[in-house]
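Show me any protein, fold above all:
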Amino acid sequence: MTNTERTERTERMKDRKFGIEIEVERISRSGAAGAVARALTAAGIADVSEGGERVYSALGTWNVVHDGSLNSGCEVVSPPMTYRDSINALQEVVRELRRAGAKVESSCGVHVHVSTEGLDARNVANLAKMIFSKQQVIRRALNVSDRRWGHYTAPLEQDWVRSISRARSMDSLKRAWYRTSSIQRANSHAGSRYDSSRYHGLNLHSVFYRGTAEFRFFNGTLHAGQIRAYVAFCLAAVQTAKETRGFQIRECQASDQRHEFRTFLWRNLALVGEEFAAVREHLTKNLPTRARVAA
């Protein structure tokens, strides 16, 4: 693939819908809603108004909701948006939440939902293979804690991914994800909002429940650049899964993890050029080089 072809893919990526859930502490729901409203207004978004813990705007409705996993905070849930139209406004929301006093603690996370519109079963299986192949590097790159890795954002298992990779229809993919031979049982799982299979770094339960692939790897953050990097990564992964083939069911064991992951971001995910330089840096800065591994 040439750089021109990669650039064309990122342009298509920018029009794919995504949504984000940002967990924060030490701020009330009304305080967070006010911060969202101020941020959207400052970003030039039209028709901004508040209604309780909801913020209405031309982008759609933002909801600030209770989250039982948090101590004294809330979860800010965006409407479906596109990178092209909304990434700057989203970054301003993050900055305004921080200015309003919101904090992130070890209990907080960031979840990104990406629309799987236009993807068939093979495309979704390809996404699972891709993420499986890089999940150990992703864990190191994002500093995912043992607590989160062990429960809330668990890794995919190789045999499970092999089963998923054989799916040729959405029904067979559904059976593989829920590990059942019964489509009736699989449909029962798919219709449950809180099915336990969702607690994985890549959550495909969301594909069947709401038409999105959910990425749950990310620790809580109120750094606008990191949020942008997380969104770009997820969008690029889904777009790449739709447009390419060939990911092997084998976890990366590279000695120079930083170089290997940067190459993946550039060559496979098409996050090329100056526009995504900061994205690549945010996603690889925690990874050791070969020299550091040897040391």
User: Anything to note?
Assistant: Residues 206 and 212 are 5 Å apart (CA to CA). The first strand starts at residue 17 and ends at 24.
